[in-house]
Amino acid sequence: MKYQESNTENQNCGVPAGGHDFFSFAFCILILAFATGCVSDKVERRSALHSYQKTLAEKGPQRRADMEGRDAQEPLGLLKPAGPPGAIGPVEISTDPNTGRRRFALTIEQAVARTLANSPEIRVVSFDPSIAEQDITRAASEFDVTAFGRLNFEQEDNPSNSIFQPGQSDDRTVESGVRQKGVTGAEWALSYALTRSWDDLTGRTLPTRYEPILAFQLKQPLLRDAGREVTLAGVSIARLNYKIAMIGFRQKAEDTAAEVISAYWELLQARRDVEIQSALLERTVETLTKVQGRREIDATDVQIKQAEAFAKTREAALLQADKAVIDAQDRLVRLLADSQLNTLDEFDIVPASEASMEAKTLDRAELLKTAMQKNPAIQQAKMAVDIAEINIRVAENQDMPRLDLVASARTQGLARGPENAHDRLGTGDFVSYGIGLSLEYPLGNRQRDAELLQRKLERRKAISSLQNTADQVALLAKERIRRGQTNFSEIQIQEEAVEAARVHLQALEDSEAVRERLTPEFLLVKLQAQEVLADAQRAEIRAIVEFNVSLVRLAQALGTVLELHQVKSSLPAGPN
User: Fold this and answer.
1) I want to staple 410 with a disulfide (CB 3.0 to 4.6 A). Which of 121, 178, 215, 324 is the partner?
2) Residue 439 belongs to what H/E stretch?
């Protein structure tokens, strides 16, 4: 009776009702399974920062004369960048007429552009987002479709003392299929198997028979391991780790840009100090010459030696100022890591940009809001909280009992030959279904309870870390705001001090021509006035440089260095 009902033809398509229902059901389930198992591993790269990071990662390590330090004949090759300047272009080269040394006129935009393109420190962290991106792919690959297969041969020869049991048998099985895990936690498998069997059972209608089977299996968790939020937790955490890596890359780029800007202004200050010290030494030598010229009039050996002592002291100070220039230049060159400007060549870098002395509006409340939104450390701490929250949701789910819906369906055929067996399979005469529930309830469950409590404590720790970081960033931002305001106010004061010192020295020099005699007291006052003017000039350039440095350091605390005009215009562009 069952055989007759299974072969009832469907009037619309000529397929038996059982076969039509099974294949329709299997097809719908397969489409649904593919749809729920589609998980993308793509990340958005819309900003210039993403393009910059991707460009650096694809270029790899900087090209140097000796890439890995393996050339024993040229041990310094590891320190020498090689290759053309590229899209940045060469800097302007001239020759100092006094020393014959090469001179490079370098703007601050050129310095930043070269640093962002060449810095080994930035290149090291540029690989981190690309590495983290592979973790996203690896997490998403858990939902990829997997093809499987099996080939089995089994032959038995057993003693038999019953006509109802075979003594010899031969089974050959070929199986293939696909399986996939879905985003709801479901696991499905669709398989096809063909078995050729033979045995020596005398009562067997088909001693040699072929049995094809088409089967579909589905396991859907209902409590533990169920739901997109839990199933996709690994992908979500991998994406957050990628964002953390990108923030770390941005932080390194901002820190390095801030360092090169600071080094640039410090080199400017060092060169101005040399100019001031040179002018002071020239005044002192000129004074010494005048005193020596009055030896026969009113200058004594005491006065001459007094002037000589000042001259020698200031000459020694000029040597220290020259050394400070080289030290400042080396710090800048190390950050540039450029093929034209490197630590192995002899040259002079002349800053071509002028330091800013414009007043800046520093609204503390607005700047603190910016810091809370854009500071990299705070952003990373917030994402650590997000990761902790995902871990809590997963732990809460794992703390539940396991209740799974298990369903299966299969159709099979049986015939003497493979063609007839497959024809019988297509008719859907023999269709089987099964559905059930599987329950697992851990009585103690201490492991999962402890893990849930651990995840909750980790979240509390992450929140505490976020709050601590926010307090530190706010304190740092407020200190740098005050520093910027103080430095700007100091510029005005130092300008007035320079002018007063200049007027004082000029008055002394004017009165020197009408004095009756050169006294030691007057000479000392004049030499000291020269020193006061030089000190005031050094203090003025120091205040100007510190004001400009304080602005970039404030931007560093806020997380907005890449938005500064010197940096934004110098950020290398790359493919989207």
Assistant:
1) 215
2) strand 430-440
Which residues does 487 contact at the CB level (< 8 Å), separation at least 6? 543, 546, 547, 550
Which amino acid appears at position 28 of this protein? C
303 in Cβ contact with 290 (< 8 Å) = no
Q: What is the pLDDT of residues 426-446, one digit of tens each?
A: 787 888 999 999 999 988 889
Q: How many CB atoms lie within 10 A of CB 252?
A: 19
CATH H-level, domain 48-137+235-347+367-386+457-568: superfamily = Outer membrane efflux proteins (OEP) (1.20.1600.10)
- Domain regions of the chain by residue span: 2-42+147-159+166-228+402-445, 48-137+235-347+367-386+457-568
The answer to whether 404 touches 185, Cβ cutoff 8 Å, is no
| Strand order across the beta sheet in which 168-181 lies | 146-157, 168-181, 187-199, 208-221, 402-412, 430-440
Element (H, E) at 437: strand 430-440
Q: What are phi and psi of 293, to 5 degrees?
A: -70, -15
Is the pLDDT score of 65 beyond 80?
A: no
d(CA 486, CA 356): 15
- Pick the residue with more confidence: 13 or 280? 280
Which residue, chain included where needed, has tokens 């700007």?
488
pTM for the model: 0.83
Distance CA 371, CA 374 (A): 5
Q: Which residues contact 519 (CB under 8 A, 6 or more apart)?
A: none
Report, in angstroms and rounded to the nearest whole number, the Rg of the chain calculated over CA atoms.
41
* Interval 555-574 mean pLDDT: 83
Contact call for residues 284 and 307 (beta carbons, < 8 A): yes
pLDDT digit string, tens, across residues 344-367: 677 888 999 998 888 777 889 999
Provide the phi-psi class of 104: left if phi over 0, else alpha when psi is between -120 and 50, else beta: beta
CB-CB contact of 342 with 333 (8 Å): yes
Burial 458-470 (b: 16+ CB within 10 A, else e): bbeebbebbeebb
The span from the CA of 239 to the CA of 235, in Å, is 6
What are the distances in angstroms from CA 368 to CA 430, 473, 569?
73, 9, 25
Percent of the chain residues past pLDDT 70, beyond the cut: 86
Three-class DSSP labels, 146-215: EEEEEEEEEEEECCCCCCCCCCEEEEEEEEEEEEEECCCCCEEEEEEEEEEEEECCCCCCCCEEEEEEEE
Q: Which amino acid is at 191?
A: S
**What pLDDT is stored for residue 35 in this prediction?**
59
Spatial separation of the C-alpha atoms in residues 171 and 158, rounded to whole Å? 14
- Euclidean distance between CA atoms 263 and 325, whole angstroms: 11
Q: Are 409 and 26 in contact (CB under 8 A)?
A: yes
